[in-house]
Amino acid sequence: MKIKENDMLPEINFFYLANNGPKSISTSELFKNKKILLVGVPGAFTPTCSLEHLPGFIENKSIFYSKGIDKIIFVSVNDPFVISEWAKSKNETDIQFIGDPNGDFVKQTGLIIDLSVIGLGTRLSRFAMVVDNMRISLLIDEDGGDLKLSAAEKVLESI
Known about the structure:
The chain is an alpha/beta fold. 30% of the residues lie in helices and 30% in strands. It is built from 5 helices and 9 strands. The strands form 3 sheets. Strands 5-4-3-8-9 form a 5-stranded mixed β-sheet. The longest helix has 20 residues, at 47-66. The mean pLDDT is 90.
């Protein structure tokens, strides 16, 4: 079953790369008592994600923050090393990057795309959601890998 607006985020562990190696961080640690813009992408360094999706959020981050967003977080099924290198490649420190390498978030939210036919396996579908204290107040799901609805400019229109 796919997650929807007004649902609570599932409690899982995401991963990121800290100074001393990979660390897990829970949904509660990331989202409790905060208003977060969570952006899901099929994969770090993939052409649409790197060249089209992420840059719009980098360019517009100050506008999102001025609209009451506390933090922008990008999530992908990639491991914490890949996620960290992706952030470094964009010289981005204001947006947080986390991984769902075991697909726990994918499985529990139903935000899934099967890209096995091109060798990428099961991934997150492309989406943007506003999470207010663990509850989804806005969900824009591409229901796949297209970038039509969840581009930064489109998300700004919805907030």
